Amino acid sequence: xxxxxxxxxxxxxxxxAAVWWLGIGWTLLLLLTGAVAGMWLVRREGAKAALAVADAxxxxxxxxxxxxxxxxxxxxxxxxxxxxxxSDLLGLLLVLPPSRxxxxxxxxxxxERRSPALRTLRIRTGGPVVQGEVxxxxxxxxxxxxxxxxxx
Length: 152
Known about the structure:
Elements: H1 2-22, H2 24-59, H3 64-81, H4 85-95, H5 97-114, H6 116-124
Helix pairs in contact: 1-2, 2-3, 2-4, 3-4, 3-5, 5-6
């Protein structure tokens, strides 16, 4: 709840500063132009991300970067739809590929810090996929475990 209140205060202050600096007409024009341009960019970059995921799947490799890009483009669209100067600016930054790459790297590193298994998964999935078949051996795979005496 506190985070939402902080966000609302930041948006109101930014909007008031824009109105004071530009005037109400230019501020509304800026918000409308940002929303229209942002949604056009979200649509274009979202289609690119979807095609990149399809290409990665067709090539038989993990599409973690492409899927993360698609999620970030979706988040950018949500931020652009939310009214406000700061959210529009953040959304437009996430739509642009260079800043989205930085955000993706930060997001992946943060996720890997929380769960180290993700890092090893990312490293292991970098190689080619090799098709194979499991063949059972005729004997036991390992010797049986010795039994412990149970005290009663």
